[in-house]
């Protein structure tokens, strides 16, 4: 279902394994295997300063799983637009959604050559549903929507997922504009899921992230809880609102949720 110009594997030659990459480091923290020694070294250096980053990465992934479970299981959402997909790991969006509703349709969006090279793992769909991959930048909402419309019926309620991607847009007004333009194209009954690293919660995390950003790596900008909440302006937040990700509808058998420096929420477009 991918465009031949962006077929998985076509970007393999563009992958630079000589410098650490955020998607591969995140994959390493999640326990994945799609990374290189340079990424492990950078990840280990980060965890030496802030060991809690592994809990943030894994809690972020669990938050996304619970979001999708709620959307597919309780709200009947059957279309998902996941922008800033990252490298495939366990419980990718289509796997969670299609376990509940095999007819679910999912479009993944990323513009990372490494993700593109591994995108075939994201395209295994149930016969009843569909998955597709779009090679595009989050800053290109209109292009994303046009490409997604080849797989999704954007006149029907759709869940927009922006998990740990908006922090790559330094300017907050620009990030809000991207969210607004994407949501404006989706009908009433659609949902927005956002989670990002938060500033003002853990100073050790902030120092580690600021040092990472100044290292020459692609920066990721932490935002205050108020700034993250502002992405949902005009939408109806699902309880419990914007909270630390472990506190968003935790599983019944989960340990007592902690406040960690990763906040997110889910909201419905009225």
Automatic annotation (TrEMBL):
One of its GO terms (molecular function) is methyltransferase activity. Keywords: Methyltransferase, Transferase. Residues 250-270 are annotated as: Disordered. This is SAM-dependent methyltransferase. It comes from Streptomyces thermocarboxydus. One of its GO terms (biological process) is methylation. Gene3D superfamilies: Vaccinia Virus protein VP39. It holds the Pfam family Methyltransf_19.
